[in-house]
Amino acid sequence: MVVVWDFLLDIDVVDGPFLIAVYVLAATVLVYLLGRSPGWSWVLTVVVLLIVGAIIGIAVLWIAVNLLDSFGGPVNDETWWWVPAAFAGGMVAIWNLWRSRWWRKLIAVLAIPLFAATAALGINAAYGLNPTIGSMLHLSTVDPIAVPTPDPADAVDPAEPLHATWTAPAGMPASGRVGTVEGGIPNTASGFEARPAQLYLPPAALVDEAPRLPLVIMMMGQPGDPDASFIGEVLDRFAADHDGLAPIALVVDQLGDPADDPLCLDTELGSVESYVMQDVVPWAKQHLDVLQGRVYTTVAGYSNGGGCAAYFGAKYPEVFGSLLAVSPVEFAGADRADEVLGSVFHGDQAAYDAVRPASIMAAKTPYADTAAIFTVGADDGAYRAGTERLVEAAAAAGMATTFFEVPAAEHDAAALVGGLEEGFRVLYPRWGLAAAPQ
Question: What CATH superfamily classification does 142-431 receive?
């Protein structure tokens, strides 16, 4: 039974036969509902129903995005097509309930959730961030992964770059492993109820006498999960080109619940900052076979997590030698700043301004040796301007700053993958995993 459940949760919903089958089924049902009656009067009725349904869908989505902030920020263009389409189809289905035979009524009733599910799957596929049914439902099928116990005697960072001294042993796995942290990360200092972190171990970490490797602590978007599959796939490609060498990546939960945004701060919403800095970082340094120096320690994130990465990287340069912010939120609660100012900071604008990454960078300038990589989708109209302002603030503060626009990407999986690829291209020589470009 567990095997069947995991199989269902692992069904690909971004591309492939399941998604095509749902689209075909929904289209077939819609055609059936549209063909209820012959004659121009029915055609006119259908046109009116589709227009009214679409207008209602647009109004509902506008309220959800702009007034209720139900999605934690703007939505992509595809959402503005799928939601009105689902409402338009639903309106036609409702009309088919009157003066029709029982089987048409049954199909009409079933069509409404079918159209809603089809729209949800279409929107999800456009973003590409939840590749399976399980990830859409925030249910993980990833198995726990045993954390290798490092030898304290090997804690001294090497004098030479690893790429110059490392030889991949025979029998090294071709790819790394992803799993949840076995036993979890204790929240002793913070008390923050985080969901289980996921860990990526590269091929070089899976052999006997494995070398100590750089550490990347990453956070994903909101709503989202601590999912290491994306960073794991990108790092596997880098490892394949570098004799199995890649950083150990720890993807942690800064939300607690996918519907919540505790802002990566210590507030009444949750002690996320204490969780990351006092629970996660010390645990990772002690329990993972990682290099200890700040140059080898990177904080990274996407979207909401990207804003967290900019914040932690700016505030704790003694811990993080590098930050990688992919399509970041400019500052905590940027999409609803007035609400956060009132409810969290109780109207204290100075206190709110003080936790903005740009403010922290200005206060701590100059940074002695911090690499800051910012990336954003070239077509991401909602996050691009804020990312560019972070780039300007980082450069002005003396960080070694890189800015990259991911071609043909919005706020989606393409932007995430492209941003990670660019970030690791810059960071590999800094970590000593590759020779510096000539």
Answer: Alpha/Beta hydrolase fold, catalytic domain (3.40.50.1820)
The DSSP string of 23-74 is HHHHHHHHHHHHTS--SHHHHHHHHHHHHHHHHHHHHHHHIIIIIS-TTSS-
Question: pLDDT digit string (tens) for 92-139?
Answer: 999 999 878 888 899 999 999 999 999 999 999 999 888 888 888 888
In one letter, which amino acid is 366?
P
Strand partners, 218: 251, 300
pLDDT band (50, 70, 90) for residue 277: very high
Q: What is the model's pLDDT at position 267?
A: 94
277 DSSP 8-state letter: I
State the span(s) of the chain assigned CATH 3.40.50.1820: 142-431
Run of H or E residues at 245: none
Nearest CA among 114, 120, 116, 115 for reference residue 136: 120
Enclosing H/E stretch for 392: helix 384-396
